[in-house]
């Protein structure tokens, strides 16, 4: 389909006689996308409603962080703060004494998980993308089947495993199982990407006498770099967003707790200081959110690459 | 180059780290779960095999079938609502109107923010005395007194579903959007030329072309939702009086709360059986779809 479109385009550029059909195609595109005024209103209203559902908790959480506690616990409810106060952003550092450490831990754990996953996944994805050996399909299926089981289901044996490996109450108790469940989809994603690299390149290197490892390192890795970046970002987000159950069960040392667990201790108390909890949440996620906004285009690429089959 | 024996060895060497990792951290624990489910393992270091006793106990206790049923209903509503909102979101974000890129970016926060932190925010919104939902409903005069949403069984059940939908929607929306954009434009243009309206094009082109994506996303969403732990654990811990206790929460409470590892493992095995069943149904559906295409 795309080939045909491409040829027409090339032809159109080549000869002036075919310019007209191209112009007509453009006009069709414009008209099919033209909305009547009430359709535009309906679309924006729908988007507003949709985004309100998605963003309401964040807006409310942010406004709560700016309300003094006395106003928070008063009726009637008001969405907009009556008096603005930044006290919670100051007091949270004493209420959650290790807040800085928790923010660092979240970042540190996700970074190590990402490193492990990338190191394990790059060779595996290459093997699946390029080599056909007996049982390859079955093995790939086996990897994907890991997605069927969540950490919560395997919690008991994982707990026993971590205990016998002596990893309980260390960073590794959160890093090692966290990485395992992110490996399979990353293999799938990177394999899809690597399959798009022309096979001729490997073969040319082979003919030139390059070893297989050399081909992987010097030919495939540089070409696959954009795909590896996407996989790394997706893994980091997965590791960052899902820090809960392993950290909750396998670690009880406050100094190793990632942000969600550090704040959960706060949440579990009888009298929750909501404005400080919200303030700490926003400050805690800020560094990573800034990075993600900068890398936003890779995100869409990552999600869509997995979606469209080759 | 790829069919020789050394090539196979090289491929296996490349696969070895990933394979070893999964074998130790996923496959062995899975095997161990099945083994433990036939034992009376608990906090003490030794345990004995007890045959089917754990399974007999959980199925005769009465509330387990109730938990299974509740989990299925919870999952069904959560997944269906996610699919509907996700599809609506994808259609809206696919419209060629100014602001498109910004709207797509604004969809992502629930997916990239740590889940637990999003759940904390919902926890406050559900607060009966001072929370946003109860507060706004009172301000608009829809309800007359505070509504402690998480304190009553029915509303807590639906509240946890809403939060689960909220976390899942961005992923479903972006995935559907990607699938929607991969539909060849010519199809729409041909239908448009023939005078087909927008809704007709959606029903006759978009939905059929997206069917594989819809089925795949339904399965992924089904597995994730069935295993959903954080939301219920943080918001209600399975309460009030068990009304939000799903199978995964039930397993966690048995294993980590009461430290009955053997019985907890048996409950975990039942979860695995359900997930396997879902996957089998999925593969059947995919095969049917492919056969339909072949005809």
UniProtKB/TrEMBL annotation, chain B:
Subcellular location: Cell membrane
UniProt record, GO biological process: transmembrane transport
Gene3D superfamilies: MetI-like
Domain ABC transmembrane type-1 per the UniProt entry, residue ranges: 68-282
PROSITE patterns, A to Z: ABC_TM1
Family annotation (InterPro entries): MetI-like, MetI-like_sf
Keywords: Cell membrane, Membrane, Transmembrane, Transmembrane helix, Transport
Name by which UniProt lists this protein: Sugar ABC transporter permease
Parts of the chain that traverse the membrane: 7-31, 72-93, 105-125, 156-178, 211-235, 265-285
One GO location term (cellular component): plasma membrane
Membrane disposition: Multi-pass membrane protein
């Amino acid at each position: 389909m795309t080939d045909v479109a491409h040829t027409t385009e090339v032809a159109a550029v080549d000869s002036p006689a075919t310019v007209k059909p191209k112009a007509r195609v453009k006009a069709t595109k414009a008209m099919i996308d033209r909305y009547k005024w009430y359709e535009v209103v309906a679309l924006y209203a729908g988007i507003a409603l949709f985004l309100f559902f998605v963003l309401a908790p964040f807006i409310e959480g942010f406004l709560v962080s700016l309300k003094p506690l006395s106003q928070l616990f008063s009726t009637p409810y008001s969405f907009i703060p009556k008096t603005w106060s930044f006290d919670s952003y100051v007091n949270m550092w004493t209420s959650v004494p290790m807040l800085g450490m928790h923010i660092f831990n979240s970042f540190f754990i996700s970074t190590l998980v990402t490193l492990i996953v990338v190191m394990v996944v790059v060779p595996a994805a290459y093997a699946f993308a390029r080599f056909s050996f007996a049982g390859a399909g079955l093995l790939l299926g086996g990897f994907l089947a890991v997605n069927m089981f969540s950490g919560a289901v395997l919690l008991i044996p994982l707990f026993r495993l971590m205990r016998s490996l002596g990893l309980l109450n260390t960073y590794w108790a959160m890093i090692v199982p966290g990485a395992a469940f992110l490996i399979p989809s990353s293999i799938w994603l990177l394999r899809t990407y690597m399959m798009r690299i022309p096979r001729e390149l490997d073969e040319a290197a082979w003919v030139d006498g390059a070893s297989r490892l050399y081909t992987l390192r010097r030919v495939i890795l540089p070409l696959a770099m954009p795909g590896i970046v996407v996989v790394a970002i997706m893994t980091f987000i997965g590791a960052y967003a899902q820090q809960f159950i392993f950290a909750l069960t396998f670690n009880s040392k406050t100094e190793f707790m990632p942000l969600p667990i550090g704040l959960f201790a706060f949440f579990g108390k009888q009298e929750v200081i909501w404005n400080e909890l919200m303030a700490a949440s926003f400050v805690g996620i800020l560094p990573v959110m800034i990075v993600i906004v900068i890398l936003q285009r890779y995100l869409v690429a990552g999600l869509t690459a997995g979606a469209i089959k080759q | 180059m790829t069919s020789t024996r050394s090539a196979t060895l090289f491929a296996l060497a490349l696969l070895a780290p990933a394979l070893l990792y999964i074998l130790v951290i996923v496959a062995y624990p899975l095997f161990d779960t099945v083994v433990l489910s036939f034992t009376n393992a608990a906090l003490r270091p030794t345990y004995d095999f007890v045959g089917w006793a754990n399974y007999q106990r959980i199925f005769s206790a009465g509330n387990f079938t109730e938990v299974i049923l509740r989990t299925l209903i919870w999952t069904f509503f959560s997944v269906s609502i996610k699919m509907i909102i996700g599809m609506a979101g994808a259609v809206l974000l696919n419209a060629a109107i100014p602001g498109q890129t910004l709207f797509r970016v604004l969809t992502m926060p629930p997916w990239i923010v740590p889940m637990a932190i999003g759940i904390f925010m919902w926890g406050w919104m559900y607060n009966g005395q001072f929370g946003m939902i109860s507060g706004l409903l009172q301000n608009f005069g829809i309800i007359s007194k505070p509504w402690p949403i998480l304190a009553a069984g029915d509303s807590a059940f639906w509240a946890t579903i809403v939060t689960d939908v909220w976390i899942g929607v961005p992923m479903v929306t972006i995935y559907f959007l990607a699938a929607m954009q991969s539909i060849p434009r010519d199809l729409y243009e041909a239908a448009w030329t023939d005078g087909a309206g927008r809704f007709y094009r959606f029903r006759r082109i978009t939905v059929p072309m997206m069917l594989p994506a819809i089925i795949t996303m339904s399965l992924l969403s089904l597995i994730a939702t069935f295993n959903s732990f954080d939301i219920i654990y943080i918001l209600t811990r399975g309460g009030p009086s068990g009304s939000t206790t799903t199978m995964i929460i039930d397993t966690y409470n048995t294993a980590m709360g009461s430290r009955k590892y053997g019985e907890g493992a048996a409950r975990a095995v039942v979860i695995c059986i359900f997930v396997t069943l879902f996957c089998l149904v999925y593969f059947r559906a995919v095969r049917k779809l492919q056969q339909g295409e072949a005809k």
